[in-house]
Amino acid sequence: MEGQIRIEALIYLGTAILVLIGVLFLLAFLYLRRKSLVRSTVETNSIDEIKKVNEKLKALERRLNDLEVKGKK
Amino acid sequence: MLYAVNIIASFSILIPTIVGTIVFSKLSKTLKTLAVLIFIGICFEIVVFTLAKCRINNLFLFHIYTFFEYGILSYFFFQLARSKSLKIVVIVSAAIFIGFSIYEYSQGLRFSEFNSFQRIVENLLLLIMILVALAEISLSKVPIFIEYSPYFIVLAALLLYVLGTTLLYVFSHYMIERYLNEYWILHGVFRTIFNLSIALALWKGRFESKR
Question: ipTM of this predicted complex?
């Protein structure tokens, strides 16, 4: 009788634990995916900004060189 | 209480069936596969219910349904797969399931018995496929809000159904021997949640791009 009660408790408790693990797993999956997406978006944005600044710097450098050449003349 | 839950679980399949029928033409091929599973499921449900009312042993139907269920869900995962690894997992899992089924029937499993071991193997193989599919989705950046994707809803519903029913199948022989039928209430609850989630996924799937 006691063994039967233990197995019956195991069915309910075990199922509840398994389902809880499943729910937590899904929530963790969604959280981690969102986090990695945000991080990769921020990184991509930063790279784009660096590229833009780099292009501006190159343009300024070219202009400075042109001015220097004109000055010497 | 058990009877009421069983009735609700049986009738809950009507919701995804109605939704599936309405939006079937707008669904992607992958979701159409899932709708077919629901259509077959309701046919089995009607026959199972009728045989039970006539007090005829209907356990042989569960054997047939397990093959249909596993076959269609495997095909669903195969269509869902973008990577080769998930396709390989699906094919290997199908081979394991068929191999195990042949072994069990050769060892004397009768159609008049409940196929609990076959169901446990099915659940474990489905669990592996779900986890591999989720791993594949996690590597993809599209869609951003994956929780609204019908494919994710199906995977989440299937994961909870598999986790919720595995222990029942493990102890099914113990419960059947002792007439502990009240535990099947858990199966009814998870089946209802699964059916409602599939209905939601099919409804959302009408806007989904073809896949």
Answer: 0.84
